[in-house]
Amino acid sequence: DREALNLIFVPGFSTASAVTQTAGRGVGLDVVRTNVSRLNGEIHVETEAGRMTRFVLKLPLTVAIADALMVRCGSETLAFPLTAVSAMRSVAPHEILTTGGRETVRVDDRAIDLVRLDRALGLVASPPATRLPVVVMRGGGKPFGVAVDELLGKEEIVIKSLGVLLDGVGPFSGATISGEGRVILLLDPTLLREAASRMPTALARESADAPLEVVDTRPTVMLVDDSVSIRKFVGQMLEKAGFRVVTAIDGHDALQQLVEQIVDVVVTDLEMPRLNGYALIEDLRRRPATREVPVIVMTTRAGEKHAALARRLGVRHYVTKPVDEQSFVRIVGSVAAGERAFEASARAGSARAGSLVE
Question: What's the pTM?
């Protein structure tokens, strides 16, 4: 059975009865599959009981140039490796079924999971359409469908690495530059499916009787960084985790926005034009409206002198790039949930103590 065989690629799965130096931890073939997928390749296993087991790896002749299927989702243009695309379909809304809380669609008389790409990436959803383009992908062990807004066609692209700073941020394996000079991200089917499985809203059907207007109660994070790519990737990371994100290109831009914008947390870089991160923090602490807003520093500066200066300005969390998605989201969540109230009560306690001394 194909699905049973694919269990050996699942992280943490092991047939060993005890943990040793070489077995039992469930780490091995999942790493192989992830790296093969990053090269836009495939791996599957063939076996005959009592005779043989064979692992088949398919890799493109060159990993620098590849055919890609270009799609549009919201205002974004994205690419899928063509080697991972098995079919393309156009489905009507009534053809999308809900099974076990997940949306499914029938392809070749078989029900497959449907991933809404806009929800999986935290993009703004497009208005409902009479027909929905669906890309049927091979990845993560079994086929699944990806709903997009428009199929733009096939292109030959030159794949660029995302680099160390952005490696592991989002379900992407690389990027390419369009003829107009725009950066187009290349989606990794395996990582996309894994990301969608951690986000029930990416696979779940929206309620038919949902209210027309919904009050946004998500914690608001202001992300201040002069790098477009950092604002994009870290912003998407936080939005996927359930935060509302507003961005600023430097400290000066942040202060202008904060005149009218109320935020729960400020995440800032240190080195920026016009007004750097240190000056931004000092200004925030001088203003009554932003004095209690907690600040997280996110920078490439790993030296102790930079961290010490940030601590003297009241910064509790100093994170160096590239950030680990899981731990970074956890820090932002804990700060948004309680640190503002903690800092306010601490300052109030200090004020009371000062009055007693007087």
Answer: 0.43
